[in-house]
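Lab notebook page, bench 4
Experiment: in silico fold of construct C2
Operator: M.H.
Input chain length: 176 residues
Purpose: comparison with the prior construct
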Amino acid sequence: MTREPSPAEIYAVIHYEDGVLTWKNRGISKVDKQFAGKTAGCLRPDGYIALAWKGKHILAHRLIWIMHNGAIPDGLFIDHINRDRKDNRLENLRLCSVSDNNCNAKLRIDNSSKIKGVCWDNQRNKWKARVSYKGRQFHAGFHAELQDAADAVRIKREQIHNEFAAHHDLLMEAGH
């Protein structure tokens, strides 16, 4: 893995303001004419903003974190709290483990209930509510009504995931 730049290296060439990175003057007329004052990075197909840094690509949210907090410890990640990968404001970023980052995952496209953690159990003819964390399943019961299962899984998720609890239910987002 390529060594990530230090805060001093980043500050030497990049300016940060409200989640946006812009290139600074570097004293190289040809480079400055083309880049100075312009937004750094480009939007990738996966929704993240990336920059070319010494011949390698690095994600903007990682640079912003390093600028303000120093090196990212091995095995940890930077999570976008509101799940918007383009929103790189410092207050929207937090350090997390892979398990914590998975808590903030969006609803799977193949989820038929449209509620994170709720699926139909054919054996019981009821909605099953459960929360996953660090490879374990935490059950929130079986429910005859979908809304009861949704309520139960939300409560369980808040207990298990704490500050990383992210519900992202399509029913909830649609105002149901």
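Observations: Confidence is low (pLDDT under 50) at residues 170-176. The longest helix spans residues 146-161.
Next step: discuss at group meeting.
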